[in-house]
């Protein structure tokens, strides 16, 4: 088994990506490797540097 580093998320993608539910801006959570939509209360995972923008794959987050 080889230990390859996962590709980093390209933060420039944030300029083009919006929440698929609310069409609002997303926040990049580097520690959790997620794109967070505070408006929708969802966090979309990032796998191998690729954001998974499917609602069924998103994690619900608590409202602040």
TrEMBL record:
Pfam families with a match to the protein in the record: Trm112p
UniProt cross-references to InterPro entries, sorted A to Z: Trm112-like
Domain of life: Bacteria
CC terms in the record's Gene Ontology section: cytosol
Transmembrane feature ranges: none
Family in the record: Belongs to the UPF0434 family.
Name this protein carries in UniProt: UPF0434 protein D3P04_16465
Annotated source species: Paracoccus onubensis
Lineage: Bacteria, Pseudomonadati, Pseudomonadota, Alphaproteobacteria, Rhodobacterales
């Amino acid at each position: 088994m080889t230990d390859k580093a996962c590709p980093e998320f390209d933060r420039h993608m944030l300029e083009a990506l919006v929440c698929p539910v609310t069409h609002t801006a997303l926040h990049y959570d580097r520690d959790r490797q997620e794109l967070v939509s505070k408006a929708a209360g969802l966090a979309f995972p990032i796998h191998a540097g690729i954001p998974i923008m499917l609602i069924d794959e998103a994690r619900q987050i608590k409202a602040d």
